[in-house]
Amino acid sequence: MNDGNRGAPGIPAVKVRDTAVLTQWQLIRLRFVKHRVAVFALAVLVVLYLVAILAEAVAPNSRDWRDLDFAYAPPQLPRFSLPEGFHVFPVIQQIDPITFQRTYYEDRETVIRLSFFARGEPYRLWGLIPMERRLFGIDREAVDAAPVTPTFFFMGADRFGRDIFSRVIYGSRISLSVGIVAIVITFILGLSIGGVSGYFGGNIDIVIQRGIEILNAFPQLPLWLALGALMPADWPGLKVYFAITIVLSLLGWTGLARVVRGKTLALREEDYAVAARLLGASHGRIIFRHLIPGFTSHIIVVLTMSVPAMILGETALSFLGLGLRPPIVSWGVMLQDCMNIQVVAKYPWLLMPVFPIILAVLCFNFLGDGLRDASDPYSAR
After folding, report:
1. pLDDT in tens, 71-85
2. What is the mean pLDDT of residues 241-267?
3. Phi-psi region of 110 (alpha: psi -120 to 50; beta: other; left: phi over 0)
4. Would you tell me the crossing angle of helices 296-319 and 237-252 to the nearest 10 degrees?
5. Are 147 and 110 contacting, i.e. CB atoms less than 8 angstroms apart?
6. Is 129 exposed, middle or buried (CB count within 10 Å of its CB: 0-12, 13-18, 19+)?
7. Predicted local distance difference test score (pLDDT) of residue 119
8. Which of 14-23, 41-50, 172-181, 214-223 has the lowest mean pLDDT?
9. Is it the case that residue 310 has pLDDT exceeding 90?
10. How many CB atoms lie within 10 A of CB 294?
């Protein structure tokens, strides 16, 4: 009789992992790893958040660095050659004496070398640790030795001569963290209200569900605009930031609440829930200790799929001038420079913040798809 691990005669034995002894979370992890797109999206998101955390060390320039002599400078893509390594050619500005139109051309006679862990202007990582090395950029020694003003605008410059690439990196801190902070509030509201609605049922469930339906009936964008307009213009940036997260949370908890309510309705009559109730367990203990842990994987999926909506909400409010405002840097604030279509037609690199938004939203969606497929490890594959 075969034992399941012994191969046929002449074929080496193959060790088969017995999935019957694995926990549900181990099964979910095994199935998630097989979803290559979701795993790749998770890796990209990890990189994005690491870049946001280490923004000072990754950005070639500081957040507020500017040089008006290079307003609307075009992007400079790094080149590589064996004798010079990574390098760029500096751009020289010319102004038409009649139309006053700015144009730029590359100075091919001068080479500006780029290097990893280049020594640049001193800064403080997280405002605490003094450092002067940056991940990639122009070394300070090359700046001092250059016959012309060395420039490196990987994504171009805006109207104030600020490096768009550096500002995109700094803006990732706000735009990516808004979604995470808002999800925490959404998690608390959705879990509490949805759990109470599904567990007690009756009139309590009717009132909560009708309230959710009324809230969902409002057009989302006009409601965002109305709540954003209520924020005083003289509020400091930090207060506006937290106000934006609260606004997004107050509008984003209804989906999670309905998921929790439906799962709680299905599980509240299970034997273990009835036994806990007969043993005298409190309602709160039954909801949060016995019922909700039974569908934690579904909650994670819903929260993951909600983060892109939070990011897009902050972007929309900031773009329209009703959310975060300068000098705060976020992807939505940077897109305010694109309000004039004629400016965008002349300087299309001002749209560069759109690409990290698209990348982050797609990665969260792919991650949510992978978690959704893996959350039910017993379904057909």
Report:
1. 888 898 888 888 888
2. 84
3. beta
4. 130
5. yes
6. exposed
7. 82
8. 14-23
9. no
10. 16
Distance from C-alpha of 161 to C-alpha of 69, rounded to nearest angstrom:
7
CB 70 within 8 A of CB 162: no
Residues 343-354 pLDDT 10s: 888 889 999 999
What does the pLDDT average to over 114-124?
Answer: 84
The two tokens of residue 348 are 């299309």
**pLDDT on residue 243:** 82
Tokens 């403080």, residue located: 124
Here the tokens at position 187 are 């998690």
